[in-house]
Design brief:
Number of helices: 4
Low-confidence stretches: none
Mean pLDDT: 82
Number of strands: 0
Distance between the termini: 57 Å
Order of helices and strands: HHHH
Length: about 100
């Protein structure tokens, strides 16, 4: 349960940044959208940490958070490179036979 909240929270926090929001939706978000995404994202992260607030569970939570952020950055980088290659291939004219 907490890993799902972490994934959604990190996703919302990344969408609150202009660069990531523009990559997904094609425009820069308004201030009220950015604020809403930040509040909900941080709220989900706090909620995921407070599900079972024992000491060892907080260590697991930090590990889950770190792995989630690392995987999300890795996936976004791969997707961006794939889109850039596809875009660059579309710019190269094909030979007429």
């Amino acid at each position: 349960m907490s890993i799902l909240l972490i994934i959604i929270g990190v996703m919302l926090l990344s969408l609150s940044m202009d660069k990531h929001y523009k990559n997904v939706f094609g425009s820069i978000p308004r201030e009220n959208i950015k604020t809403t995404l930040k509040v909900i994202g941080w709220g989900l992260l706090i909620l995921s940490a407070s599900i079972k607030p024992l000491d060892i569970n907080l260590i697991y939570w930090y590990c889950q958070l770190s792995i989630t952020i690392l995987l999300q950055a890795f996936i976004l980088t791969l997707c961006k490179r794939k889109l850039e290659r596809k875009y660059l291939k579309s710019l190269i004219p094909r030979k007429q036979f």
